[in-house]
Amino acid sequence: MNKTDWVRDFRQGSPVLQEENQFQIPYLTFPILSEIPGIVHGFSTRMGGVSQGDCATMNFSYSRGDKEEAVLENYTRMAKILGTVPEHMVATKQTHTTNVRVVTTEDCGKGVTKPLDYEDVDGLITDVPGICLCAFTADCVPIYFVDPVRKAIGVSHSGWRGTVARMGAVTIAKMQEVYGTNPKDVICAIGPSICRDCYEVSEDVAEAFQRAFCGCEECYKAITAYGQYPMQDGKHTIVEPGKAPGKYQLDLWLANIVVLLQAGVPVEQIQVTDLCTCHNPQYLFSHRASRGKRGNLGAFLMMTQQKD
Ligand SMILES: [Zn+2]
User: Fold this and answer.
1) CA 252 / ligand 1 centre spacing (Å)
2) Distance of CA 167 to the CA centre of its chain
3) Bridge partners of 27?
4) Is the Cβ–Cβ distance between 57 and 70 less than 8 Å?
5) How far is the CA of 240 from the centre of ligand 1 (A)?
6) Which whole number is the average pLDDT over 35-54?
7) Cα 303 to ligand 1 centroid, rounded to whole Å
8) pTM score above 0.85
9) Where does the pLDDT of residue 15 fall: very low under 50, low under 70, confident under 90, or very high at 90 and above?
10) How far is residue 94 from each of residues 83, 98, 231, measured CA to CA in Å?
11) Which residue has the higher pLDDT, 208 or 13?
């Protein structure tokens, strides 16, 4: 596989393909996170795992018809790359809520090597080094959060429901409440997910976004501040008229940028992907491209145990 085979929609913030690692498992990293000392992270592709059929090959979902032992092997491979073990990973239980769980050592292995004992958790935060937080997507938006000052991290799943409910801001607010995080210190990456060109939505979804992202001066200022974002006809818009009547194209990347900026994250501390899952179904799981027959991609984030 050649890196240039990937279809890229956006020239800034390209995740980096790591395929020369000792385990020969291709995965993606974000330069903005790689620069932070003591942070290990990765975003999986659908390559390098052992799952078969619709979940081939690197699937992290136990509930999409895949074999349990295959999923566990996939976690084991990903854990090795990240320098950990599946027993130290903790999974979300995603249902498009804005619930954020404060993860402690007691949660280690939940949803990965042992059963989950919580429901409706779309975000995870922790300040414990050595715990690997895992969130899952296949077109929805994964967001990574690192507070290098208070030494806390988070991952969130932000689909259209999560985005309209400002999951990114909710996650940061929880980090603020629990760890004293100042949003100005937070470094964020918005991971591979569906791009505006691919994401056709109905009128009710478009209206929800028009209400949530009103286009007021504050919204516009936030978007303009993210100067790297491509503009069309001199305008940035989250919802555009669609290609079909009564349909709209929704830009989840831009909406999540606005959410993070308005939560107080400085513009230079946000990196947004240029990779669309739906444009690249041979490399990434896409719910739309596969008509729902797919596995889950994983977003992984961990603080390493640091010697003082
Ligand atoms: Zn696309």
Assistant:
1) 11
2) 11
3) 18, 44
4) no
5) 15
6) 96
7) 31
8) yes
9) confident
10) 25, 9, 33
11) 208
Helix axes 252-262, 167-179, angle to 10 degrees: 30
Residue 129 alpha carbon to ligand 1 centre in Å: 35
Query: How far apart, in Å, are the Cα atoms of 307 and each of 37, 129, 208, 272, 304?
Result: 12, 11, 48, 31, 9
Distance 193 CA to ligand 1 centre (A): 8
User: Please, what is the end-to-end C-alpha distance for the chain in angstroms?
Assistant: 41
In angstroms, the CA 197 to CA 127 distance is 37
What's the confidence (pLDDT) of residue 117? 98
Q: How far is the CA of 8 from the centre of ligand 1 (A)?
A: 8
Of the pLDDT bands very low, low, confident and very high (cuts 50, 70, 90), residue 11 is very low
At which residue do the structure tokens 């909710």 appear? 170
Ligand 1: distance of its center to the CA of 195 in Å?
A: 4
Dist. CA 236 → ligand 1 center (Å): 17
* pLDDT 10s digits, 83-97: 999 999 999 999 999
Phi, psi of 46 (to 5 degrees): -90, 15
Ligand 1 mean position to 36 CA, how many Å?
Answer: 29
Given this model, what pLDDT does residue 1 score?
47
Ion ligand 1, residue ranges at CB < 5 A? 195, 197-198, 276, 278-279
| Residue 94 identity | Q
Is residue 238 predicted with pLDDT exceeding 90?
Answer: no
Ligand 1 midpoint to CA 279 (Å): 4
Q: Report the DSSP pairing between strands 297-303 and 152-158.
A: unpaired
